[in-house]
Amino acid sequence: MNSIFSNISNNSLLANIPDITLTVPYIGLIDARPYVVATIIFIGLTVFFKILQMVVLVRLHAISKKTNTDIDDMLIAAVGSVRAWAYTLIALYTALQVFELPNSVDKLVTAIFFFTVVWQVIEVVAKIINFFARKFLEKDEDGDGEIDPNAATATDLVILISRIALWSLGALFVLSNLGIEVTSLLAGLGIGGIAIAFALQGILSDLFASFSIYFDKPFRVGDFVIIGTDSGTVEKIGVKSTRLRTLQGEELVVSNAELTTARVQNFKKMQERRIVTQFGVTYETPHDKLKEIPEVVTNIFEGIEGARLDRIHFTTFGDSALIFEVVYYIESSQYVVALDHQQTFNFKLLEQFAEKKIDFAYPTTLQYTKVLS
Judging by beta carbons within 10 Å of its beta carbon (0-12, 13-18, 19+), is residue 127 exposed, middle or buried? Predict the structure, then answer.
């Protein structure tokens, strides 16, 4: 096994050190120079790495006080994530290169070294990815001071996928440097990945659909939506499914893949509501009073704050009524507010018709009897 460090020969480094011979019980005389050199290398590198980390952190803290950006804070977190045990193991691995280790021990030490380096690099890179993912994905879209839960879910998903990718590449790097042939392994993983993709195509489609929902933003948590024959308020947008709270109170779980193909009505994005309503008066209503009805309705809406009349027309000769159609707008997206305005209009219409002695129609049947002689 060839390590990334060449073994230090006795004729180069050790030759410049005076002879240090120790007598060890049951063993006899041993040359202590390799142990001294290894100890010096281990302590020296450990102290050097610690001092380097402290100097870099102090310098970054000084820079962060002079800037308004939060990138330096991310760098401080990344440098601070370097663990003492990690560079201690790296220093130990370097110190052990002084000795001629058995092949099995050398493989074990090398494996530990590469795992430590890969683990620490992944932690630093993950900190950077975490920072940029939250910076660019987690935004206050509504301006209410709170992060959109959908954005938080997308951020966690990006971080999870990036960690899986980093650890996969790291594992391949470690195996390759340990002398293990990774080409056949990659080929096997490719075939296995295709089989897994076919087996999990439903889950994967929901996974990518969650990304589509985030970037396209057809709805957010808190929006009231109608999906086909179902309706409810969005409570959570997950990796695989979205949960709605219906008007009846139960939780409705819909797969994300279904949501990307279904027709979704989002009432939260409404700026105002358009209301169409009808009422009928009797056929016995005098002609002059029929002509007064549009003016009566117009005057009613002038007194209702938050409602705007669009039109009022005598539209239909019904079976037992003369039908008038009223179209108006409510300056609110709330359904309850629309019902309140409709109720106010109904009460005032009843009052006005009572004053003008205009009768509302109701289903009636008029029978004519003809007597034949």
Answer: middle
